[in-house]
Specification:
Helix content: 25-40%
Oligomer: single chain
Number of strands: 7
Strand order of the largest sheet: 1-2-7-6-5-3-4
Shape: globular
Radius of gyration: 14 Å
Number of helices: 3
Low-confidence stretches: none
């Protein structure tokens, strides 16, 4: 993939157990991170990014499934209405230094987003492409596109 010289890498949704999928995906993601590329992950991609950064994931008792899940953006204080479909979550207590929690579920307080300080690397647990809000999470795609444009200009 890196031979294609991408401007950014989008880590898409699953399905899958993040630990099992991580066995082959985490080394690739670490290679992408080493290149300094913009990275945006959603759902399983969020979990894979967290694992590549050194965090852990845990199986949830019931998971999150369906639309109308309220998620708080900790950087702005805004609440987004999201769509989710996952049975694992990133354990926010295991986030390494330099990785911050950016979003949390208002249902159960579980992690719903992370970002790497000073780098164009971020992810969310939910599905912003589903537009349940309907445009509540559109800014994430704009942020990713802007990160690729900024890298191109540098």
């Amino acid at each position: 993939m890196l031979a294609l010289n991408p401007e950014g890498v989008f880590l898409s949704n699953g399905p899958g157990d993040p630990a099992a999928t991580g066995a082959y995906a985490v080394p690739m993601i670490k290679g992408v991170l080493a290149r300094g590329l913009p990275v945006f992950g959603i759902c399983l991609g969020h979990q894979m990014l967290a694992l590549a950064l050194g965090a852990r994931t845990v199986k949830m008792n019931h998971g999150h499934h369906g639309a109308n899940h309220p998620v708080k953006d900790l950087t702005t204080g805004k609440v987004e209405i999201t769509s989710m479909n996952h049975g694992f979550t990133v354990d926010s207590q295991t986030l390494p230094r330099g990785v911050s929690e950016t979003h949390v579920s208002l249902f159960d307080g579980s992690n719903c987003g992370i970002a790497v300080t000073g780098q164009p690397v971020f992810s969310v647990q939910y599905h912003p492409e589903a537009s349940p809000g309907p445009q509540d999470s559109y800014y994430l795609f704009e942020r990713f596109a802007a990160a690729m444009k900024d890298r191109r200009a540098a």
